[in-house]
Write a structure and sequence with these properties.
Blueprint (H helix, E strand, L loop, with lengths): L12 H19 L6 H40 L4 H8 L1 H5 L1 H17 L1 H37 L1 E3 L7 E3 L1 H24 L6 H24 L4 H16 L22 H6 L6 H9 L1 H13 L10 H29 L12 H9 L29 H13 L5 H29 L11 H20 L9 E3 L3 H10 L16 E3 L2 H12 L1
Antiparallel strand pairs: 1-2, 3-4
């Protein structure tokens, strides 16, 4: 049979029966190597099995190439509607699986047991499949991405401004399309193969790159923090709505004589028939048919779930990286180096006007999740906050749901620390503005109350985001000025009981709390 193979040999029942006989003979000789010339016959049987699997590989590769050529010719021969393209690319291609799936299953089973000899043949089948699919869908994919990009254009603001790209809309439409495309390709692949998951994901990642190559530069150059947060929201929503339950009921195409087999029957099917079964089958056609039916019914571990998150992870990481970079830029420019304006320091007049008008201030827009920063008690009075405090609250609110906890904790600590320094500087400016008859007061009550109020708000923010108190540990130098003065004017203070009256730097668990205590004492 193997010396004179015909075109349809691999589709004949006798071929699969012969392959089963080879399996049993190889298994038997491997367990009885003490038999005379067992090594010679074992090598011959293995050679026959490799030749049989090679015939399966040749048939599969030729069938996939011929099918791809036919579909490509029909797609390019004339104007084809979108519905017709879909029918040719998926149902037409899927119909070929009914004839190829049974013999591919046989190759997969033996490649799993003898990877050194047969894995290369299975890899060639995978390569032929992916090559055929890429040839058919690449041009359609590029056209669809260009259409999505054109649909995301919006008219720029200002005279002479050209169209710009709505990044959020482009991300939503593009990633949704890729998710559907990858789902269709995943389903189609499962009609042919049960193996090659790593190769399948590399193929899908290659398809996604056509969109990512356009989307990634736009994300990395996006200047608005809010837009980047919306992009992260869109991608995370698609990842949460993963296709977790769409494949549980999938069944590969089966031959008509497989239909009466239940899953329990499949589990009970042995890996291969025994030698006694084959001898009996030689004289009993009915038993021979049963053995062939059991061979086709064997199932291997199937691809059950498309993890779309693995495919969207790259663009999400790009968006998060840009989000963190932009947040750090905002913290430096609008918190650390913020220059106070006259209206920012109008305390306590700003609080008096707020109470007089009964205003609640403009609402702060937070992310749609249950953000802990939305529960700050003084949030309704945010119009009376110092600008750096408002900016700190806004930045932390934006980042809370979109970056990893460790990164968020570092950024939160940096923002709160710089905001605290800006409040101390602002307090000094408020103190300088107060001009009683005796002149400006270095520790005016208004300035200290301004600092106490905002430090309490800042402390509430740190508590809301779960900022570790250990991160706030620092050294308090508040008493060093008095200590140095005592030493300069009274050198004897370093001797005897004088040391007990000196105030040296001390480690405090929370710098904000230490600053609060100092301000309250000044008041």
């Amino acid at each position: 049979m193997l010396n004179h193979p015909g075109d349809g040999l691999v589709l004949q029942d006798d071929f699969l029966y012969m392959v089963e006989r080879l399996d049993v003979c190889i298994e038997y000789l491997e367990s009885h190597r003490e038999f005379k010339e067992s090594q010679l016959y074992l090598m011959r049987y293995q050679h026959c099995l490799t030749r049989a699997m090679t015939l399966i590989k040749i048939h599969c590769v030729n069938s996939l190439k011929a099918l791809a050529a036919e579909i490509h010719r029909r797609l390019t021969s004339s104007e084809v509607s979108s519905a017709t393209q879909t029918l040719l690319l998926y149902p037409k291609f899927q119909s070929a699986a009914k004839g190829l799936r049974p013999i591919i299953t046989e190759l997969e089973a033996r490649a799993a047991r003898r990877p050194d000899d047969l894995a290369a043949l299975l890899n060639e089948c995978h390569a032929a499949y992916f090559s055929a699919r890429k040839q058919l869908i690449t041009s359609r994919l590029i056209e669809e991405i260009q259409r999505i990009i054109r649909g995301s254009e919006v008219q720029g603001i200002g005279k002479g401004a050209g169209p710009t790209i709505d990044l959020v809309g482009l991300t939503r439409a593009g990633c949704s399309y890729l998710k559907q495309l990858c789902s269709d390709e995943f389903n189609l692949y499962r009609h042919f193969f049960d193996s090659g998951e790593d190769k399948l994901y590399r193929f899908l990642e290659g398809l996604c790159d056509y969109l990512y190559d356009d989307l990634r530069p736009r994300i990395l150059h996006e200047p608005k923090l809010g837009v980047l947060c919306e992009v992260c929201t869109v991608i995370q929503a698609l990842m949460v709505l993963d296709l977790s339950g769409d494949y549980d009921d999938f069944e590969p195409p089966s031959r008509p004589d497989d239909d009466h087999l239940s899953p329990l029957d499949t589990l009970k099917t042995p890996i291969s028939p025994t030698l006694r079964d084959l001898k009996s089958a030689h004289s009993d056609p009915g038993l021979k048919s049963d053995l062939l039916r059991n061979s086709r019914a064997r199932k291997h571990q199937q691809l059950k779930h498309l993890h779309i998150g693995n495919l969207l992870e790259m663009v999400l990481q790009d968006a998060q990286t840009r989000l963190v970079f932009k947040a750090q830029a905002v913290i430096q420019s609008e918190i650390r180096y913020y220059v106070a304006k006259d209206g920012d320091l109008d305390y306590p007049q700003k609080l008096i006007e707020f109470r007089k008008n009964g205003s609640e201030g403009a609402p702060i827009l937070l992310s749609p999740s249950d953000n802990p920063l939305s529960r700050i008690t003084s949030l309704p009075r945010q119009s009376t906050w110092y600008p750096t405090v408002k900016k700190t609250h806004w930045v932390l609110s934006q980042l809370h749901d979109y970056v990893k906890p460790a990164i968020f904790e570092d950024i939160a600590y940096e923002a709160i620390s710089l905001c605290r320094e800006s409040l101390v500087s602002a307090s000094d400016l408020v103190s300088a503005k107060s001009k009683p008859p005796t002149g400006p007061q270095p520790n005016s009550p208004d300035a200290q109350l301004f600092l106490v109020r905002h430090l309490l708000i800042l402390k509430e923010m740190a508590t809301a985001v779960g900022l570790d108190a250990q991160k706030e540990r620092g050294v308090d130098f508040s008493g060093m000025a008095d200590t140095l003065s005592s030493i300069v004017f009274n050198p004897n203070a370093l001797l005897g009981q004088g040391l007990t009256n000196l105030r040296f730097p001390k480690v405090v668990e929370n710098i904000t709390d230490a600053r609060l205590v100092k301000s309250l004492n000044s008041v």
